[in-house]
Structures are given as structure tokens and as C-alpha cells.
Amino acid sequence: MSITTSSETPTPTPFSNRGQKAMEAGTNHTVWDIISNKWDPETNPSGILSVGMAENTLLHDTLLQYIHTNMHLSADHLTYNNGSMGSNALRAAISHFLNRRFNPFHPVQPRHILVTNGCSSAIEHLSFTFLNPGEAVLLGKSYYSAFTMDISLRPEAVVVPVSMRDVDPLSPGSVDAYEKAAILYEKRTGKRVRAVLLCNPHNPLGRCYPRATIDRLMRLCQARKMHLISDEIYALSVWENRVDGDVLFTPFESMLSRDTTNLIDPDLLHVIWGMSKDFGANGLRVGAIISQANPDFHVAGKCLSIYTFISAMSDQITATILADDAFTDKYVATNREKLAQAHEFFVTLLNKHGIEYEHGCNAGFFVWINLGKNYLEAHPGEGGQGGELTDMVYQKLMENRVHLASGTGYGAETPGWFRVVFAHPVPWLEEAMVRILRAVG
């Protein structure tokens, strides 16, 4: 028997297969390294200026002032309070807020809500609860990059990206592509496709799904007994587009607002919402699953939610905010106006410098832009193939200390596209544009 002495290097303890998969994912997940070195003109001038993270900073001062005035903790907040699914006060406040703002066909009750520490955890809960390892969720391209990890890393479900080719990915015609993808996956693997996941309003395209598309998806999910999950985290970040006047804009309609009679069994429908985007409060880590007709899901959630218990401070301040109608009405209206102004300013810069962008957005706080075209015009001999172009441009952006979300992680169908977030003060956007132009020029 060989015993390792102190002078020998011990053999590393092997990871589990799950741990190995997480390590590999973490190696490619560099965004936390980027935001830990944020640019600041005074304190960190050599840092990285990020317009890639979906953070809305436009009303931080307003929200902070409200929190400082209204944060009142009691002894209950030093205990487990009402349990890991969210306090009674918080779930009552969320249901009150959603009933005022989302126009639900059936009023949302506190018992319909499972609170989680952010919407990523909410998606993971749904994946873990409804899918066995190897079973699949359909995601239409392009899609929010973190969905793939939320669905698959720990639940070990599979993401099936759905190519739309020349079809508008939000149009009723896109549903045919979802159906074909489900049939092909099940035929190829023998495993079920168990869900379709939407982000409505869409991330990264910044548009809302028309009712006709949602209805067709409901019928498809009913026919194939798939769950339909609608991530509506940008629901109230819908604003007036003052630039793209030639586009017919689709208003936001929550899936909660639909009468699903003759469309789909309601136990297959689940909506996600949280504080991160509409209230510019990513750091509070408050998300919610609204499942109105599946009580068994909530029974399972009682067990799983111990791992996604939000802090008492986040619970208390969120409950206070969402119960305050006067504050939320003013906040949402002001936020929409500021987003409209910021979008107009940034898109004007894009037009000035000849950068192509996806027209027609009226929701969220990002624009889908084509930097590959500008880069190729400035460097005609450096084309690359497919995703190589996107990676090449991203490398140039990082060399110029500016971070945008690469289309590679978003399932972009065409190389060279990036998501840029405009919900920042004007000086931040101006500095970002200087660095972007330097990178592609």
C-alpha cells in the first residue's frame, strides 16, 4: 500500500460528473470576472466598461431613497418567518401587484406564487420538477444565454435550440419550427420534449409576442402535453420607440391575461416575474413562479425552495414596494419614459456611426446590433467563418475594455451580432460608443 508523503503532490480528488460539468461551464462563464473589474472614471479608469449585463441603472437613486426610508425590520425577519416560499406578506404583495398590472383572466392568489432568489432559480425549479435527465426544453433562436445553464446544469435536462431561419421568431409562423424541432428530437433520442420556454418581452430582441403566436404555442403544447413557460421579467419595461417610426409595435400581453379555454390545460402554464429588471434591482434577488392551476407543483416547491430562500431584507422591502400603489405607478411611468429617452439617444448614436441594429424594439433595455458588418468593412481580409467573426469582434471589444453580450451565447443565427444595454446615463453610453468604434474600426 502506497502512502503519500508530505513531499509528494497529492492526487486531486476527482469531481463528480456534475461537478466536472459545472467546472467546464464556469471556465467559459467569464461575466463575473468582467463585472468584478467595473470601469469607473475616478476609482477604476482601467476597468472594463460593461454594456453587456442587463442592468437598468436609470432609477437607482429613486429606489435607494425609497428603500432607505421604508426598510423596517422586526424580530420576525431574524427568523425563518413564514417559510422558504416567501413570506405571507410578500406573496400577498406580489399577487396584489400582478392583479393590478398584468390583467390576469383569473386573479392571482398568494397560493399560486412560489418566491425564489431570482428568476434563474425559478427556471431551474421548473426544469427540475417537470423534466427527467435527457428530456428537453425548446428555446427559439435567438435566446437569453443564461437559459441554457438554468435548464440543464443541475436538472440535467437538455436545451433544444430552435432555428427560425428566415421566419420572424416572434410570429405565428415560428410555431411550425417548434413543432418540427420537438418531433425531430423525440425521434432521434427517444426522449420527451417536455416544455417550451419563452421570454416575453423578448431578450435580446426587445419585442413582445403577439397574441396569435402565444395562442398557437398553447395549442401546440396542449397537443403534445408540453409545459409552456413564459418568463415575463421585462413585462413593465415597455416604452415608446421614438426612432423606428415605420414599424408596427406589438403591446405586451401577459400569458396570465389569456382565457385558455379550448387552448390548453391551465396546469401546463407557468409565468415568471421578478424585481431585477422592471425595478432595476438585480441585487435584491427576488423572483416568482406563478402557477395558477398546478397545486402539486407548489407541494414540490415547498421542498425545493429551501435552496432558494430569499433574505428577510429582500422579502420585507419587496413586499413594501409592491404594496405601495402610488410609488409603483410613478416608478413604472418614470422608468418607461427614461428607457424611451435612453433608447432614442443610443440609437441616434448607432445611426450616426452607421451601425446596423434590429429595428422595432419597444421593451427591455437593450438593442441587438451588427458589429460584424462594420468590422469586415474596416478589415476586409479578416472575415473568418461563422462564429469566428463574432469571437474576433468580441476579442477586439475586450482589448478596448468594453463588454457587450456576444451573439454566440444567444444562439444568434447570423455571425457578428451583439446585445448592448442602453439603460445607463449618457456619459456611460458615450464612452461605450467610443470604445466600440475603436474596436471595430
TrEMBL record:
**What does the record list as coiled-coil region(s)?**
none
GO MF entry, a single one: pyridoxal phosphate binding
Q: Where would I find the Aminotransferase class I/classII large domain in this sequence?
A: 51-436
Q: Name one Pfam family in it.
A: Aminotran_1_2
Recorded hits in InterPro entries, A to Z, give: Aminotransferase_I/II_large, Ethylene_sulfur-biosynth, NHTrfase_class1_PyrdxlP-BS, PyrdxlP-dep_Trfase, PyrdxlP-dep_Trfase_major, PyrdxlP-dep_Trfase_small
Residue ranges for the region (Disordered) are 1-21
Q: State where composition is biased (Low complexity).
A: 1-10
GO biological processes = amino acid metabolic process
The entry assigns this protein to a family as follows: Belongs to the class-I pyridoxal-phosphate-dependent aminotransferase family.
Name under which the protein is recorded: PLP-dependent transferase
Tell me what organism the protein belongs to. Answer: Aspergillus sclerotiicarbonarius (strain CBS 121057 / IBT 28362)
